[in-house]
Design brief:
By secondary structure, the protein is mostly helical. It contains 20 helices and no strands. The longest helix is centred in the last third of the chain and has 33 residues.
């Protein structure tokens, strides 16, 4: 074996990043369209909370099946299928009837049903990505690509916010959604054409890169059918604590994803276009945080080992996130407030690479299922935040509703202190 390793793994990652970007473009659109859709469809904030929750319910319920599907079918086939479905369900969203042709019950019921299905078909993306990155990157080198995949998703939202706000103002939300739908089909085509199931299957990779990826990797074992892999993961103490920590952390993500644009327009009284740019800046800040957090986690893992290498980025980030969240929620100056909230999301996204790298380290050959369970808890919390934030706002005001995420972030820190990412799950 001679020569330097090729970089096919990073080309694979670029396609994964594109998929992550598009996934968020095709799911975040409804958050940007919220003020227009609420008005046009005659909905209340509480009803809109149920519509947001429908997506996260579908997304949460299908995380574990999505992880099983990704591990069984392999990342190549799995991501191709779900990306095609993204485009199809984007088109179905456009067919939701308006109040001029259907009753309020039909409008709300149709939108809840479609958003549930949209959540279901987007659910496997990150469990499948966990499996792909675990196969294509060496041990101790997972956090950076995982962090960068989160950068891609935040940039997807950042790109969506100003462009979609403009399209909706000029053409309406249905036309805007229709223009986005083909992105799913494009991702499916590129992924199926370029990616292979394992590094050794790719024609362009050399032996040096295959050896680099295989180094320090435990030898694959035959996993008994009983108990199933997902049961093994659910019985694992470290995986359960990691999931609970990530779940609490995700309350903040749910706030930002579901309510921030609405909060800017309706509470802070920003112009819709300006709010789109502010939202974009917040998600761009989150993207920078995700990239930095992934790089930092890999560096710390090499110096300190997996246990503290995965812990420190999350602890530092969530404490900083909590402080900024409270300060931004209660500051009276809108510009200062949104700046603090953008920095809050920067700190929050520092955690992504570390959380997901820990799930791969613990799950090993069951990385897809481990990622599915991790994301199940996180998105169950998004259901809670979709319903709890407007309730908090009506009961205690929007300041408390936004600041409440700090409580969950600090609980996440406490739980993480008991997680050992250096202890792998038993497979035999």
């Amino acid at each position: 074996m001679t020569g330097k390793p090729t970089n096919i793994r990073w080309r694979i990652f670029l396609v994964l990043a594109l998929a992550s970007f598009v996934s968020y473009v095709l799911r975040a659109n409804i958050s940007i369209a919220a003020p227009t859709m609420i008005e046009e469809l005659g909905l209340t904030e509480i009803q809109w909370g149920w519509i947001l929750a429908a997506f996260t319910m579908g997304y949460s319920i299908f995380q574990i099946p999505g992880g099983v599907f990704g591990d069984k079918a392999g990342p190549r086939k799995a991501l191709t299928i779900i990306a095609v479905l993204w485009g199809i369900f984007m088109i179905l969203t456009i067919a939701i009837p308006g109040p001029d042709v259907a009753s309020a019950g039909v409008v709300i019921g149709s939108l809840i049903a479609v958003r549930f299905l949209v959540g279901a078909v987007h659910a496997p993306i990150y469990p499948v990505m966990n499996t792909a990155i675990s196969r294509w990157f060496p041990v101790g080198g997972w956090a950076l690509p995982l962090g960068l995949s989160s950068t891609a998703l935040t940039l997807g939202f950042a790109a969506t916010a100003p462009v979609l706000a403009w399209l909706i103002l000029d053409f309406g939300w249905r036309v805007a959604f229709l223009l986005l739908a083909p992105l799913g089909f494009i991702v499916a085509g590129i992924w199926w054409w370029y990616v292979r199931y394992f590094p050794s299957d790719h024609a362009a990779i050399n032996e040096a890169e295959v050896a680099l990826i295989a180094a320090k990797r435990p030898a694959p074992v035959e996993i008994p059918a009983h108990p199933p892999g997902w049961v093994r993961i659910l019985k694992n103490r470290n995986m359960l604590l990691l999931t609970l920590s990530y779940t609490c952390s995700n309350f903040v993500f749910g706030e930002v994803f579901g309510w921030f644009y609405y909060y800017l327009v309706e509470v802070r009284e920003f112009d819709p276009t300006d709010a789109g740019w502010v939202t974009a800046s917040q998600w761009a800040a989150g993207g920078a945080g995700a990239a930095l957090g992934g790089w930092l986690c890999d560096r710390l893992c090499k110096k300190l080992g997996l246990r503290w290498g995965c812990r420190w980025p999350i602890i530092i980030a969530l404490v900083g996130c909590s402080v900024l969240l409270v300060a931004g929620a209660y500051h009276t100056n809108p510009i200062v407030a949104v700046t603090l909230l953008a920095l809050c999301f920067f700190f929050h996204q520092l955690t992504e690479g570390a959380y997901w790298a820990a799930s791969i380290a613990i799950g090993t050959q069951l990385a897809g299922m481990a990622g599915g369970i991790l994301n199940t808890g996180a998105n169950a919390m998004s259901v809670v935040s979709a319903l709890l934030v407007p309730w908090f706002a009506h009961q205690f005001g929007w300041q408390f509703a936004i600041a409440s995420g700090a409580i969950f972030a600090l609980i996440a820190v406490v739980l993480l202190l008991f997680v050992r990412a250096d202890e792998t799950i038993k497979l035999d």
